Amino acid sequence: MKRSGSETIPVALDADGQPRLPSSLKKIRTLYVRGTLTLNGKLNFDCSHSLSEEDYQRLTGLTRNQFKAVANTVTDLRKSEIRSVKTCLAILLVQLRTGLSNSILATLFSLEIHQIQRATHAARSSLMKSFVPSFLGFQHMSHDKFTRDHTTPTARTLFADNQQDTGILFLNGTYNYLQKSSHHYFQKQTYSMHKGRSLVKPMMILATDGYILNVLGPYYADGHNNHASIIKHAFKTNADEINTWMHEDDVMVVDRGFRDAEEILNKMNFKVEMPCFISKGAKQQTVDEANTTRLVTKVRWVVESANGRIKQWKFLNKVVANHYVPHIGDFVRIVCALVNCFRPPLINDFDNDDIGKEMIEKAQLDNHVKTYVEEHNLLRRKTVYKEVNGATELHMFPRISLDHLRQITMGIYQIKSAKNYTDAHQEDDNYALFICKARPDLLRVKMHSRHSSSRCYHLWLEYDENEVTGWYCTCKVGSRMVGCCAHIASVVWYLGYHRCNIGAAQSVNASGKFSSSILNAKDVPEESDLSDVESVDSYIEE
């Protein structure tokens, strides 16, 4: 009983004889006893149960056990009166993962801004000494181990003739955007005419399964630092002993930005694989050029996926403050080392090389549909076609499963794009299908580009009752036989899969939810009151 003035108020007691508290206050009391909450309310990484597993992943990009493993490696990092070793490490990882400013981090950790800066510098220096060298750089992995453990069978079949000791590497430059600098010469060196903003370029060297072997640079962004110049500089200066690590006959898979470095790489006895250029005056790649380009893009998608992994650490995806520029290379290397250490490979199937063998076989084929279309001038002749309704006609078109469609496209990107292409053309009532009168097994389709409203593509599909036997599209890569372009995949997906399994009357995507709140200035009623417009015109004339 508790006495208040002259009245006595009953107080409920628990089994231990202590006052019974409400559940919310009881939970706070329990968290405080365990060390989850502190008097100043700061984030507490010293107590193993202070944060949940989800909180660790959201704040640092690592699990609780992974964070502990990294903390155990930074043996030269010392605790101070204001923060512990784990707190110092957490400050850097939270900043890299979330991209928060020093002022916000000071609030979260109940420290001053200059203390946050010192902790970031100390953690960065320690990680670069004790953690990064074990998971990044030419010295952390031998050439034999790299080729044995990080080369996919498909890439080895396509580019190395199944040679087990041949290294296959991806070279790719990524970007880290910077604030505009008041230092005129530095601003000139970091300004990219291609991107139209200030940035620096780290040069990444990756394996075919997405493993990041090394990061060179970062380099400036002006005209003297394109991709070709950067890789020339790396070999001429023997950056990080790259000349010692590389072997002759190693394969370098690059994009078209390295075209000026192809000659010097060939002189060093490296094999260069690059997507083909369209010949001057031509509008489309030849069959051989399109097939060769597809062999490169089949394996090089891991470069963009690896970049996407790195940019999940928001600090590298945002505009970096100028006072961090001297250390931006270290931040990139720390994130890459964390990805190598704790993230699984982008490709886990190291036992199946059937796709590579099939692609090599198809790369030798000629596109007979393209030959027929050009010989009979079917692109310009219109009277030889009859328009058909794809929803109710074309009963002879084969029914195709998603597995079969993936065998046709030899990838999943075209299948993902097919749904969006079909939906866009159905909404615009522009999904025109035509049958060749002389050849009922030849279908012609007119499609608009997803990038430009004024550009149209024409494609032809040859089929029988069981399968699609040939295709040709007028887009840049539409003549290839190794897979097909997204336009052809869209028509095959719609006629062979979606129409048969779901029904043509049903919309592919409910895209109206994206545009219901967006206005379009071209949507004006035909019978509108023009009195206001006339009055404005007369006012201007007066």
Describe the structure in your own words.
This protein is α+β, with helices and mostly antiparallel strands. It has 3 domains: 19-130; 136-348, 2-Layer Sandwich (Nucleotidyltransferase, domain 5); 365-505, no CATH class. The chain contains 22 helices and 14 strands. Strands 3, 4, 5, 6, 7, 8 and 9 form a 7-stranded mixed β-sheet that branches. α12 links the parallel β8 (251-253) and β9 (271-273). The N and C termini lie far apart (90 Å). Mean pLDDT is 85; it is low at 31-40 and 504-508.
CATH superfamily of the largest domain: Ribonuclease H-like superfamily/Ribonuclease H
What is the rounded distance between the termini? 90 Å
CATH topology of the largest domain: Nucleotidyltransferase, domain 5
- What is the quaternary state of this protein? single chain
Low-confidence sequence ranges? 31-40, 504-508
Average of per-residue pLDDT values: 85
Count of helix runs:
22
The helix content is 40-55%
Shape: globular
Query: Number of DSSP strands?
Result: 14
Main sheet specs: 7 strands, mixed
Reading off the top of the CATH hierarchy, the class of the largest domain is best stated as: Alpha Beta
- Please report which band the strand proportion falls in: under 5%, 5-15%, 15-25%, 25-35%, 35-45% or over 45%: 5-15%
* Tally of separate domains: 3
Radius of gyration: 31 Å
- Helix-strand makeup class: alpha+beta
Any guess at the CATH architecture of the largest domain? 2-Layer Sandwich
GO molecular function, one term: zinc ion binding
Domain SWIM-type: 457-496
Protein name: SWIM-type domain-containing protein
Pfam families: DDE_Tnp_4
